[in-house]
């Protein structure tokens, strides 16, 4: 394990100490958890954007999309817990 030094303003340091105490952690553990959560969120966001770009490229290449009305019916059924077949993509290019 390596060591990294960071500079933290006194008011933030006090807030970290108070939050860590409330969470039942040391300030060190609290900071490590915060860093890990931030890194994980950035990775999740990056994967989301990668997948969105991939899917958008597929839409542009094929012209196939699911009409909103069909998607809405499907999503509402899923939200109710119903088993429902995914709507078919259709060619939207004219």
Give a quick rundown of the structure:
With 94 residues, the protein is mainly α.
Account of the protein in words:
The protein has 94 residues and is mainly alpha-helical. It folds into two domains: 62 residues; 32 residues, no CATH class. Helix content is 67%, strand content 4%. Helix 1 packs across helix 2.
Share of helix, binned: 55-70%
Oligomer: single chain
Distance between the termini: 59 Å
Question: Mind summarizing the main beta sheet?
Answer: 2 strands, antiparallel
Number of domains: 2
Overall pLDDT score: 95
Computed structural class = mainly alpha
The tally of strands reads: 2
Q: What general form does the structure show?
A: elongated
Report the uncertain regions.
none
Question: Strands across the major sheet, in which order?
Answer: 1-2
Strand residues, percent: under 5%
> Rg, please?
23 Å
Please supply descriptive tags for the structure shown above.
94 residues; mainly alpha; two-stranded antiparallel sheet; 4% strand
Question: What topology emerges from the helices and strands here?
Answer:
Layout: H1 10-23, H2 27-62, E1 64-65, H3 68-80, E2 90-91
Antiparallel strand pairs: 1-2
